[in-house]
Amino acid sequence: MTVSSGIDAPPDGMSPGIGHTAEIVTRVTEALSAETLGNPGINVLATPCLAGLCDEAAAKVCGDRKTRRMRVDIRHLAATAIGDEVRIEAEIMSVDAELVVCRIRGRDSNGDIASGHVIRVVD
C-alpha cells in the first residue's frame, strides 16, 4: 500500500519522517482477551485489541503532531497467550500534509503475530 504525494519531509510541526520507527510493549492481560470481548473459552489476545495496539504504535511514531486514525489494515497471524509480552513496531512509510502511512509489525515470544498498515490523518 502506498499513499504519498512524493514529499519525504514531514509537514510543519511534525517529526519524524519516512523511515522513523516507534515501538510499544505491553503484557497481554485478561482485559485484552477475546474471552473478555464475548468469545467464551478463547483466552488469547483479541484481534480488536491488537488493532488498537497497532494504532497506538502508529500514533506514537507520528511524534508531536496531532493525528487521528483513518484506517487499520492488519493481519492477525498468531494467537498470543495471556501473560505474554507483545511488541508492536510502527514505521513511517509515507507522509504528506494530510496522511501518514505506517507499516506495522507485531511480535510476541513465539514470533510474528501481526503485519499490515495504519493510516492516520494529520489534523
Ends apart, CA distance between termini: 22 Å
Major sheet: order of its strands?
Answer: 1-3-4-5-2
The total count of helices amounts to 1
Low-pLDDT parts are 1-11
Number of domain units? 1
Strand content: 35-45%
What is the second-level CATH architecture? Answer: Roll
Describe the structure.
The protein has 123 residues and is mainly beta. The protein has a single domain (21-122), classed as Hotdog Thioesterase (Thiol Ester Dehydrase, Chain A, Roll). Helices cover 12% and strands 41% of the residues. It contains one helix and five strands; from the N terminus they run βαββββ. Strands 1-3-4-5-2 form a five-stranded antiparallel β-sheet, with helices on one face. The longest helix is centred in the middle third of the chain and has 15 residues, at 47-61. It is elongated.
